[in-house]
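Researcher: I'd like a structural prediction for the single chain below. Treat it as a standalone chain; there are no partners to consider.
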Amino acid sequence: MREVMRVEPLAGYEPDIGRWLWALQDVRRRTLEAVEGIDQRVLDWGGDGENAIGTLLYHIALIEMDWLYADLLCQPYPERVVAEFPRDHRLPDGRLTPMTGVPLAQHLARLEVTRAWFLRELEGMPLDEWRRLRAPEGADYEATPEWIVYHLVEHEAGHAYQIAHLRRRAERDVG
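Model: Treating it as a single chain, here is the predicted structure.
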């Protein structure tokens, strides 16, 4: 049977918005495939000073929430988001805060709940709002929700590739 490859707008959204959200969901599928069945030692591996896969999963979810609340909605994080991210995003030297010893199930639950919050905030958004520029407080840029979602697709796609590559290396190193 021949595989059919096409973009189908996510149901419940304006079609132009739904297509971008489909892409966001599709790249998440790739991230989840890259970590399916991963061993904790591989999840925590950080060879050559690289970020561990668990660190990248935390980073993906946190960046998504940051773009949603700080840039798209231009509001502080709700308490539920603050509670979901107990560690600072970066160390004083700018590196990502290591997230080792966290079970895969916890990372997956965080990715699931934060994505649900993201999608819920966009429900019912009309196209004029989707394309309206936002100027986050203190930022030297403006962005539309459309661009933000594009950027999140690009961001996660890069990390999904990185995770798959790290997994192969880690599995070789840890056995």
